[in-house]
Amino acid sequence: MSGICSSFSPSEEEIGAADLQDTNTNQRKPAGWKAMPFVLGNETFERLASFGLMANFMVYLQSEYHMNQVKAATLLNTWSAASNFAPVIGAYVSDAFIGKFWTIAFGSFSSLLGMIIMTLTALLPQLRPPPCTHEGQLHGQCVGHNKAQLGILIASLCWLSIATGGIKPCSIPFSVDQFDLTTEEGRKGNNSFYNLYYTTQTIVLLITQTVVVYIQNDISWAIGFGIPALCMLFAIVLFFVGTKVYIYIKPEGSVFAAVAQVFVAAYKKRQLNLPSDDGQFYIPPFSRSLLPELHLTRQYSCLNKAALIVGDEVKQDGLCENPWRLCSVQQVEDVKCLINIIPIWLTSVLGFLAMNQQGTFTVAQALKMDLQFGPSIKIPAGSVGVITLIAIAIWLPFYDRVVVAALEKVTKQEGGITLLQRIGIGNLFSILTMLVSGFLETERRLSALSHGGTDGIAPMTVMWLTPQLILIGFSEIFSIVGLIEFYNKQFPEHMRSIGNSLIYLTFSFASYASSIVISVVHDVSARHGSNWLSDDINTSKLDYFYFLIAGISSLNFLFFLFCARRYHYRSSVKLM
């Protein structure tokens, strides 16, 4: 009982169903972990390339292109916004037209092209402004870039944004396609994949924030950009080596058209009464061996009318006469699934507020603390986030191999806990992070004001920030990994790329929400004579701001609980 009554011909639907999921007729069965060295290897090297290129890019713009802080930040924010929106377009193209494999392939080549151009800007003096001394940069006496130089730089960023749109929304769904979810081994492998994916991403971040940044700053920008470009080339080679192992899921047409058809058909039949007989609802004459066990539910029952057969709406061959008047039961339930997911997605936006503060105000705290570690090591303030990455790299494999196994024995639940419970725990950790951050900031500010020197540095080691950095790492483990798994498991199969792109939209909207909160707090508190977020962190009230974020996150958590209690999980997958 699957398939969508859409504008595509039956032969395409039937061929797609047979090729994609019918393990009896397919030439190969899902390879599972055998495909992961190629798929996950490609993703790992791609992330090493993209993170390595961007890890220190702000410094590159200021030191080599002589941009001031505002212009450089504006360029980066614009590029970031485009890159976070691009996965939505890439997901649509993948699900509707060319499929995940070719979308990833196109994105990979776009990424390589963008990185080569970026490397050339560092390698060829003609592609960037002439060198300038540090004194000249401080006094604004450097020769700026011309339009051609800026155009080449922007062209590189455009190709990288296109690459993001191709790779990010499809990499995880394409990996999930390689597991046979009808077997216990395949389901366990699928569950472990999400944790392994985020673990490798964390390790990559550790490498880029240390080794690659060191090469770019202290050795050569050309080498620092060239290494990510070589990694991307290796990722492409590795990806195509595995072509004989992969399972390929063919696109099923426009996702948005199928969703719109349900609403249009339900509206046209709004005057009809729903019968009690399930046999009067439309089920297309297509069969698959791997199906979601879906039936029409009572939730949003007004949409059920879209699948109600009236008169001669079904032709003799079992196909619908007009997809804008009659939709399949599968279509209706898929739309209900989307409606259920939207509130969970909205709560995740505010749930990420705490994470957004770690890259800004935590660094500001570190700058006013003792950065000395031992007799000879001085920790860069911008590198304190490595503590979070180390916590994730250690805890995530332990959670996957030890904690989940223990929880499964107790709860008898696959994965130990439900997906929404995992996301909820992540939200609680984000609240706890802000509370701990607030208390630590209170102590830091009091220490700086009472015992600090003329430079305003508190006589407290920067390692006092470790608790809040570890807690935000736990929040990421439960929230982000949980959301990735939630979207990929709860979205309909033909919409997985769209679902995965929501993660990047969440990051984008969370950044905008954080900017709005910061602006409002800054303006309101300044008007009342006590600026919480002034330029001098020792005279501001950053701890109050942290407590405010904790309050907002707590209200958001209550809304999340309300949405989670009302959420209906998609039915399990069975072998027919």
Automatic annotation (TrEMBL):
Membrane topology term: Multi-pass membrane protein
One GO CC term, this protein: membrane
Molecular function as annotated in GO: transmembrane transporter activity
Protein name per its UniProtKB record: Major facilitator superfamily (MFS) profile domain-containing protein
Region Disordered, residue ranges: 1-28
Primary location recorded for the protein, binned into one broad class: membrane
Pfam families, per the entry: PTR2
Protein location: Membrane
Family designation: Belongs to the major facilitator superfamily. Proton-dependent oligopeptide transporter (POT/PTR) (TC 2.A.17) family.
Amino acid composition bias (Polar residues), ranges on this chain: 1-10
InterPro entries xref list: MFS_trans_sf, POT_fam
Record keywords, A-Z: Membrane, Transmembrane, Transmembrane helix
Transmembrane regions: 101-124, 196-215, 221-241, 338-357, 377-398, 419-440, 460-481, 502-524, 544-564
PANTHER family xrefs: OLIGOPEPTIDE TRANSPORTER-RELATED
